[in-house]
Amino acid sequence: MKPKVAFFDFAGCEGDQLQIANLEEEILDLLGQVEVVSFREVMKEHSDDYHIAFIEGSCTRQQDEERLKQIRKNASVVVAIGSCATIGGINSLKNYQNLDTVKKIVYGENASLFDTYLARPIDAVIPVDAYVHGCPMTKEEFLHVVKSLLLGKKPEIPNYPVCVECKKNENVCAFERGEFCIGPVTRAGCNSCCVNEGTKCWGCRGMVDNPNENSQKEVLIKYGLSVDDAIGKFKLYFGWEKKK
Amino acid sequence: MDDDKKMHIISKDTFAEFINNLIADNSLNVVGVKSKGEKFAFGPLESANQLRLDYDVTLLPPKKYFLPQYEERVTYDVATGFKAKDPKESKSNVIIGVHPYDIMALLHMDEIFRETKSDPYYLERRNSSIIIGTNIQKMSEQCFAPSMGCATIDYGYDLMLTDLGEKYAIDVGSHKGADLLNKYAKDVKKAFARDIHAVGKKKMDIVNMTKQKFNFSSELIPEMIGRFYEKDSFWKDHSEECLSCGSCVLVCPTCYCFDIQDIPDLSLKKGQRLRTWDGCLLEDFAKVASGENFRDTKANRYRHRYFKKGKYLFNRFGFVSCVGCGRCSSNCLPDIANPVNLFNDMYAESLKSGIEIDSATVPDISIKTGTIIEFAPKLATIVKKVPMTANETMFELKLDDETDLGHQPGQFVQVSVFGVGEAPFGVSSSPTKKGTFELCIRKLGNVTSKMHTLKEGDKVGIRGPLGKGFDAEFLKGKDLLFVAGGLGIVPLRSLFNYVLANRKDYGRVILLYGCKEPRELLFGDEILGLEDRDDVEFMSTVDWCPEEEVWTSNVGVITTLIPKVDFDPQKTYAVVVGPPIMYKFVIKDLKSRNVPDDHIIVSLERRMKCGVGKCGHCQINQLYVCKDGPVFNYSDIKGVPEAL
Amino acid sequence: MTTNKNLEVNVHHVTRVEGHGNIYVNVKNGIIEKCEWAIPEAPRFFEAMVVGREWNELHHITSRICGICSIGHTLASLKATEAAMGISISDQDLKLRKIALHAENLQSHILHVGFLVLPDLMGVGSVIPLASSNPDEVKIVLGLHRLANDMSNLICGRTTHPQRLIPGGFSKIPSIKQLLTLRDNLQASVPALQAVADLLKSLAPKIPDFTRETEFIALSNPDEYALYDGKIASTDTDSAPVKDYLSYTKKLGS
Q: Which stretches of chain B sit within 8 Å of chain A by CB?
């Protein structure tokens, strides 16, 4: 009997759900293993009877907590997909500013029409069983997590920095190319995809369990960044992780 | 061409033709040093003009051709079991531009992968590859190969090139090299004396290309580092900035630790077992399913790397396993990985604290070569499954090929659960029990949890028996004091039941068994049966007894039983197996009863992956738990700091 | 025309669209009491998020506005940054950026047509049952979607949050060989594209016959199909340069 799965999204860009569509022909293989009972972007039907819930996007309003709690009640397994859901993502950039100011900048006099609070990953609201990190997540890691869950095992995700994958891929280190990379504190699992494409790691997968933040900061400064800018690198994606 | 004379001369144009001829041969995989951005890397050559023999150092050493970053070695199909990939290589690698220090590193790896149990994949690639080395023209700033004796090398290559301006000198190192020149090159001339002089002069100049030097004689390293094991502040200070990023070990030509992952495909019925690079500097390298991490600080991990290179491998093989390429140093972002700086600091501190290091150690080496490693597990069927406690279940297994496991008491097997992974378990039954063998498994991580969901009739993969077990022969005639703590009863039982099956060969048999609380007692029925025997003295204890449980025997930790037993320390051998915390206290009590060190036998556990002493995960200092153990004599490990 | 009709339409979370919306219509005795298009999506405040960040980070942040049209958002941001900083890009980079936008459109349109609209026209709730009832058509759609993604991957690194698009051009460019292979693949896909077009044409009668007076606004360029450069053109008013975009948009609060 195929387990029933459902997909939900909150405050995000829908990019992680798109990666599922990007499975292309493998979608058919996946459908051989699971039964999709709810996926707003792709299907009309909806059912509250699901075993595994995949959730994309952060929780950025008080009123969204209720929907999250309901999903948690319905599902035996909750999987956070994409950085917004797993660590707060780019949404957490606004957490460093005064939220009233933020609303005013965007909506001027109509600011009061819009609700918001500190952007947070969904595990700040409900317990989460598995994580697919990344902005966006990779379809490979998504499948890895799904296969693990189907086999009844806790998905193994790396607890080492992106440097490991960069070295395996024989990349010229981003620092050698004049870039300010925070791969050394960022959780691997993306196969160093951004450095492979000639840029650097921005930290979208969140930090490893015990990052040596101080050392990373010192490295950034040694290579020419000001102290403020070095600290600023940690704010792009680690906003919620660092504040909690 | 006369290949009795080993040095030849070839013009640069003719050399380019030679390379292009090699590239044109489709049975060869021709790779060489090319530029990569501002750096260099070995990669496939499409034409000779891509070759950059004037490079200083490549990003990754040529080890990637012998121990690839990712390698499928075994595939599985739930219907048919596990199959090992054929080690035969379809194409021979021709690797062009290898510097002497990287050639030396390969020679190190050869001994490591051949010793005791040989890795057929590595060896096949080495045998079928052709190494065309080149003498160093430019040295990177961090290179200290001259200090390690690796600036030049007279062995280990098929051909060695030296740039003499308009031409190359080619040193032929093997028949393979001579044949290669014969087949693909023309106009290769004999070298004259002046050419040989020129090459000699170039080689001499190479040692002066670097400023990186030790302030002492590098042969003192093993002796000196040995004095620094306990100097925690030294290691802590040097590793404070460590990012645990693994860069130093991943780019190192003599590092070879690896991880093994099982990757199912979407059908969940088939998959592969992948071998990939790992590193002891990474945080979870020595972490087991229970969450315990046997090397949990940056300082411990950082220290381990230097000890492995500078002492453990030296003691095992006679070489300091570093060739001075400088890659670790140049790839370390916080710049804490330069061995020259570290050892110079160490030497300075030795002088300051008056530590005398005036002699180099000479290790006592005996390298055994032996069997080829079997990577593909055999299939076994679960014939009986008996839950014993809430978390532990006994599995009785029978190999599908109907053979006996043939283990010694104390050995272990690696159990593969399709698609989930592989984990080591001590065999719990005595080898006198024929036809099947028993494992007692606690539900903790992925493999064990999945195992608990399997039913009688389901199949798993088995590799083994592995490791060094108890020497039941040697123990004949002795009095035996078995001390089992918690799950330690599981492997201990294999020896205990063996002794009972050959009771008359042994003296007194005393079993002390302790667990946390009554409901965690394992093998309850068998244990009860012991009470009826008058040739076995048995005592049990629990740490505490909760209200709702019944317990009429001793309450207290296992050491509370030891004073209740009378034994002759000279005639008695203690076999102790239990959780890490237990050893310290039990051994202390035994020592206070005058039990000699070599009368105490223990069984240790660590994180294991390959089970055959290659991947590095189970290392305690210089020992491999999977190969030198898991059974150890206390006298052999009491000086090993990471052991107990 | 008057009517005494009663009507209640309550669509909670419109399905099979990119983006979110609720529709609520309440008609009593022919009188519209309520007609609402509500956006339940939580605002993320990108315009405030970028305040204080460095010029070379903005494209990375704004790309996250949308996962499907990331390339468009990234390029719009890069154009703004490059204009502000006086950075010019090469002709080659301009061409590559335009190809990137075509790749994005191809992917998005295939997704829209094949996954989101086709089920409606074929009377099913999603593409999932079509995988069993019309496997050949679904395979063609999947193959085209794959091609569009391969194209994005080659030019930009990936479709969603394209890494290669940076201020001043590209962090990495494809080789000539790779581009030629892409061209061959695109040319070879024309029959498949034709098949999808034919399928749609055959289902066209099912599309509701509904039009209403609407002002359409788009980028317009006399020399090419405008995706990257052009003026803002309108069906109702005169065109205007892009920097005057605010005069064409009306948003709460601006």
A: 36-39, 41, 59-60, 64, 69-70, 240-247, 250-251, 261, 263-264, 266-268, 276-277, 279, 282-284, 298, 331, 333-334, 419-421, 445-446, 449-450, 453
**B441 in Cβ contact with B395 (< 8 Å):** yes
**Full set of structural domains in chain A with CATH:** 4-150 (3.40.50.700), 163-243 (no CATH)
pLDDT at B493: 96
Nearest to B205 by CA among B253, B171, B142, B162: B162
Buried-exposed string B209-236: b where 16+ CB fall within 10 A, e elsewhere: bbebebebebbbbbbbbeebeeeeebbe
What is this structure's pTM? Answer: 0.93
Query: Is a pLDDT exceeding 80 seen at residue B359?
Result: no
Long-range CB pairs of A175-179 (<8 Å, 24+ gap) are A175/A219, A175/A223, A175/B333, A176/B37, A176/B38, A176/B39, A177/B37, A177/B38
CA-CA-CA-CA torsion sign (B354, B358, B360, B362): negative
- Give the pLDDT confidence of C48-103 residue by residue, as tens digits: 999 999 999 999 999 999 999 999 999 999 999 999 999 999 999 999 999 999 99
Those residues with Cβ within 8 angstroms of residue C180's Cβ, 6 or more apart along the chain or in another chain? none
**Packed helices B120-128 and B100-114: angle between N→C axes, nearest 10 degrees:** 140
Q: CA B298, B300, B302, B306: dihedral to nearest 10 degrees?
A: 180
Picking from B387, B307, B375, the residue whose alpha carbon sits closest to that of residue B339 is: B307
The H or E element that residue B494 is part of is: helix B489-501
Task: Specify the pLDDT at position C20.
Answer: 87
**DSSP secondary-structure letter at B431?**
T
Query: Does the distance separating the beta carbons of A26 and B268 come in below 8 Å?
Result: no
B581 Cβ contact partners less than 8 Å away, ≥ 6 residues apart:
none
Contacts of B526 (CB under 8 A, 6+ apart): none
> Which of C18, C45, C111 lies at the smallest CB-CB distance from A94?
C45
Residue owning tokens 């001369």 = B9
ipTM: 0.95
Tens of pLDDT along B510-563? 999 999 999 999 998 888 788 888 999 999 999 999 988 888 888 999 999 999
Q: What is the residue-wise DSSP string for B552-615?
A: -SEES-GGGTGGG----TTTEEEEEE--HHHHHHHHHHHHHTT--GGGEEEE-----SSSSS-S
Return d(Cα C153, Cα C181) in angstroms, integer: 14
A180, closest residue in chain B (CA to CA): B333
Mark yes or no for CB contact B266/A156 under 8 Å.
Answer: no
Cβ-proximal residues to B545 (8 Å cutoff; 6+ apart), any chain = B517, B518, B551, B555
Give the pLDDT confidence of B251-295 residue by residue, as tens digits. 999 999 999 999 999 999 999 999 999 999 999 999 998 898 999
Q: Which of C20, C39, C61, C64 to mutate to test the interface with A (most CBs of A within 10 A)?
A: C64
Spell out the domain ranges in chain B. Answer: 7-207, 218-352, 377-466, 479-603
- Please name the amino acid found at residue A113: L
Record: fold of B479-603: Rossmann fold (3.40.50)
Nearest CA to CA, how far is C222 from chain A (Å)? 33
Contact C102, C96 (CB under 8 A): no
Considering only CA atoms, which of C170, C158, C173, C161 is closest in space to residue C89? C170
Domain boundaries B377-466, CATH class? mainly beta
**Pair type for strands B167-172 and B7-11:** antiparallel
Please state, rounded to an integer, the average pLDDT across all residues of chain B: 93
List of chain A residues with pLDDT < 70: 243-244
C-alpha–C-alpha distance, residues B316 and B274, integer Å: 28
Structure confidence at residue B83 (pLDDT): 95
What are the start-end ranges of the E strands in C144-194? 165-166, 169-170
User: For residues A176 and A170, what is the distance between their CA atoms, to the nearest angstrom?
Assistant: 13
CA distance A215 to B349: 25
